[in-house]
Amino acid sequence: MRAPHRSSRRAARQRRRRRAAVLGCAALLVALGAGGYAVLSPDTSRTASEGPTTQARAVPPLTEPSAAPSTNPSPAASGPAPSTAPPSSAAPPSTAPPSTAPPEVVEHGAGSFTTAGASGGRVGTGGVLRRYRVEVENGIGIEPDAAAAAVQAVLSDPRSWTTDGRDSFQLVSSGAYDFTVKIASPDTADAICATGGLDTRGEVNCDVGKQVVVNAKRWLTGSPQFDGSLDDYRALIVNHEVGHRIGHGHEACPGPGKPAPAMMQQIYGLKGCTANAWPYDAQGTYLKGPSVP
Fold first, then answer.
1. How far apart are CA 107 and CA 191, in angstroms?
2. Can you tell me the distance from the alpha carbon of 204 to that of 190, in angstroms, rounded to the nearest whole number?
3. Does residue 202 register a pLDDT over 80?
4. What whole-number distance in Å separates Cα of residue 108 and Cα of residue 114?
5. How many folded domains does the chain comprise?
6. pTM of this prediction?
7. Cα(104)–Cα(141) distance, rounded to whole angstroms?
8. Residue 85 lies in a domain
9. Does residue 24 have a pLDDT over 80?
10. Which residues span the domain enclosing 94?
């Protein structure tokens, strides 16, 4: 049999390369999926423990426990700790523009921050008092005092961490503090999180050093994987990252139709659970899931 002509072999190779390119483009489109970026889709090539917010650690406060410490009851047995919190149905105030148009996300802010002037009283009866302040990057369109009010409303809510009977919180604008809730543009958030060896890829939040770093993109737009309100998603951000500070690791979905734990990385998908922003329910029961190794 006569060997194929050289030009025929070259044409066959070109056809194979074109098919490979088409398949590659199709795979990229699938990876991008809803929301326009692959990072929000579950990555089956890595485990959840390898995600960018694996950072649980119990951080001691600046001062020793003070002012009538409680007996530290177990989460299941204790009711919500008394506090100056709003009713559990109250949602944190929104800092989003009142318009129905999508808020503008500034990818790269000024790099400098303004500390909110707001402060408040101690919330919760736990003996471990954690003072925090709120800072907002300049040039990203978020008002610092409004953001501080939203964060304070979350940590004051009986469904948040004060119900553990151990931790209490206080918003401060000056003086000693244990951590900062810092809202930053995606580029600035990435730079801060990278100081702790975390790759947040312009998309997610982190807890590093004395800083709970909130990506302004998530604060303003929520997550396509979370079908609750924007205020609830902001509550999830605060509860999840503060949960790391007080020693909680990641948790998985406990079962189809059950509330997703606040310590679940819900941005990577709910895995059959329902969206949930709070570590405790209104009856004071901890909404837990299996620990992620």
1. 12
2. 9
3. yes
4. 16
5. 1
6. 0.69
7. 8
8. yes
9. no
10. 53-247
Amino acid at 207: D
Amino acid at 114: T
State the DSSP string of the chain. -PPPPHHHHHHHHHHHHHHHHHHHHHHHHHHHTTTT-GGGS--TTS-GGGSTT----BPPPSS---SS------TTT--PPP-SPPPTTPPPPP-S-SSSSPPPPPSS--S-EEE-------BS--SEEEEEEEEEETTSS--HHHHHHHHHHHHHSTTSGGGGSSEEEEE-SSS--SEEEEEE-HHHHHHHHHTTT---TTT--EEETTEEEEEHHHHHH--TT--S-HHHHHHHHHHHHHHHHBT---B---STTSBPPTTS-GGG--TTPBP---SB-TTS-B---PBP-
What pLDDT does residue 233 have? 96
Are 229 and 39 contacting, i.e. CB atoms less than 8 angstroms apart? no
Q: Helices 144-156 and 230-245: crossing angle, nearest 10°?
A: 70
Let me know if residue 262 belongs to a domain.
Answer: no
Categorize the per-residue pLDDT at 59 as very low, low, confident or very high, splitting at 50, 70 and 90. low
- Residue 254 forms part of a structural domain: no
Structure tokens at 77: 């047995």
